[in-house]
Predict the structure.
Amino acid sequence: MTDACAPPRPCIAALIVAAGRGVRAGGGLAKQWRPVAGKSVAQWTVDAFDRHPAIDRIVLVVAADSDPAHWPHASRCDLQIVIGADTRGGSVMAGLDALEHHADLVLIHDVARPGIAAPVIDAVIAALAHHQGAAPALAVTDALWRGDGTVAGTVARDGLWRAQTPQGFHLSAILAAHRAHSGAPADDVEVARAAGLSVAIVPGDEANLKITGPGDFARAAHILTTETGKMDIRTGNGFDVHAFGPGDHVMLCGVAIPHARGLLGHSDADVGLHTVTDAIYGALAEGDIGTHFPPSDPQWKGAESHIFLTHAVDMARDRGFIITHADLTLICERPKIGPHATALRARLAALLRIGVDRVSVKATTTERLGFTGREEGIAAMATVTLVRP
Ligand code: MG
């Protein structure tokens, strides 16, 4: 584990406990590896911490026999997978051991709470400036009964709270508390209190539900896709022009098309790929090709333009986006695009790593008007759609 945290800001780790069997949720596969709203429960939970700017590293504790194919990934934080124990307390201990000397504060979170939102994480971290521990909770507002089929009595709800995670602590204090603790604690607050640590209560969130039974998956899907507005849908556009010059072919969408002239450019001048690449960068708000591949850099002289497109596609995927659609319009009198459209579309789909049914390549002229009408060059425009579920 590298140490990128610099004082005076404390280094903050998220310890996500994902070593349980999750049998109450049904379905065979442990609940943390099951899909909800387009990705696994564990990936949603990791993503919530990965995108929070105060979190520096993530430790995910898994069962010894868990399938690595299920393990989530992180794009910003350092993510370490640690093998846990048979008990929750033992798994937390394994995660804390891995973090020793590598963090100042630790937020211990149940993997089955994928709806954790930034304000709750913020509140826990803020409270740790003045407390040894801090955890979110919701005041009990429903009446509480005691009973077994019939009501045998009521219980005063004053001062009662429904505990949530992440439960945050100063790492050295909670590590010592766990090492000194024996038995099977309900949660880490119980361990902290047994060691004499004070734990502040900060506001919890109804969306931070714990997936327990089969019905909770539908509730979680609703929260993850609507209530917290986490689905991110983006549209990007691109536009590019290259002038004709000497040559015997033009490159369009990675396909060489015979023509009496070539296209001028620093790279291979593939106006189609440049336009789609810029549309992806646009959707990501990441500038354009020139930002990432400066024309002043001689290493891109004559470069094949699929290099640029692959960079943009990887950047989108690294940020959790799926490219769902691309629509490219080529504007020229010649060469005639129609006979090559199928080949261009197939090549573009392959480079985008999506189905050909999600890729459109069409062509038009400007009725002999303007620079494309005078056959001075080729223009292109593109729209792409990116979705992060
Ligand atoms: Mg260009």
